[in-house]
Design goal:
Elements: H1 4-21, H2 39-57, H3 75-89, H4 107-128, H5 137-156, H6 173-181
Length: 189
C-alpha cells in the first residue's frame, strides 16, 4: 500500500541518502546553510527527524529534547534503513488521518514536513560537502504550498529565516524558490 506522502518520500529519500553516503568523515565539522549547524549537527538533526516522524506517522509521542549522536559505526547504512522505515510508516493511509496529538497539526502536514526536511536538508548537506543534488521535482512542486502555509509560524519559531530574493543565476529555479522561501541563499556559500 502507498499514499501520496509515501510516494513523495520515496522519490525524495534516495537523493538525500546518496548525499549522506557521500559525506566524508573529515567533512563533519564543515558549516552548512543552516545557521549554527555543522554537517554533523545537521546529520544528527535529520536522523532525529527521520526516526521521530516514523513515530508521528503511527501517532505515537516523540521526544525532541534528546540529542544523541547518531554518527557512530555504520551511520550511513542506518540512515538509509531509517528512511526506508519512514517511507513505510507514511504508506499506511491511517497515518494521514486526523490531527497529531503531540504537535497539534494535521497528520498530512506532518508528512509534508518530513518531505520538506529530506528535500531541503538534502540540499543543505550537498552544498556544504560540495556534492551535486537534484531534488525530486514532484517533491519541490508539492512543498511550495506547505512552505507558504508554515512560513509565518516557522519564522516566529526560528525554523525559517525571512525569505530572500532568488538570484537570476540560481541553478534549479524551482528548488531555488523553495530554498529562498525558507530564508536560505540558493547560491550558498
Amino acid at each position: 500500500m502507498s499514499t501520496k506522502t509515501s510516494d513523495l518520500l520515496a522519490a525524495a529519500a534516495p537523493r538525500t541518502v546518496t548525499v549522506v553516503r557521500g559525506i566524508a568523515d573529515d567533512q563533519l565539522d564543515l558549516p552548512t546553510p543552516c545557521r549554527d549547524f555543522t554537517v554533523r549537527d545537521l546529520l544528527n538533526h535529520l536522523f532525529e527527524v527521520v526516526v521521530n516522524f516514523q513515530e508521528l506517522a503511527a501517532k505515537r509521542p516523540v521526544q525532541w529534547a534528546d540529542k544523541p549522536d547518531h554518527l557512530v559505526d555504520g551511520w550511513r547504512d542506518r540512515f538509509e534503513a531509517e528512511t526506508g522505515r519512514l517511507i513505510a510508516a507514511w504508506s499506511d493511509p491511517s497515518a494521514l488521518e486526523g490531527v497529531s496529538s503531540g504537535m497539534g497539526m494535521p497528520q498530512t502536514t506532518l508528512g509534508g514536513m518530513a518531505l520538506l526536511d529530506l528535500t531541503v536538508h538534502g540540499w543543505d548537506l550537498a552544498v556544504a560537502t560540495d556534492q551535486p543534488y537534484q531534488p525530486a521535482p514532484e517533491a519541490t512542486a508539492e512543498l511550495h504550498e506547505l512552505v507558504e502555509q508554515l512560513g509565518p509560524t516557522a519564522r516566529k519559531m526560528g525554523v525559517f529565516a525571512d525569505p530572500v530574493p532568488v538570484p537570476a543565476t540560481a541553478p534549479l529555479p524551482d528548488l531555488a524558490r523553495l530554498l529562498a522561501r525558507t530564508g536560505r541563499n540558493p547560491t550558498w556559500p
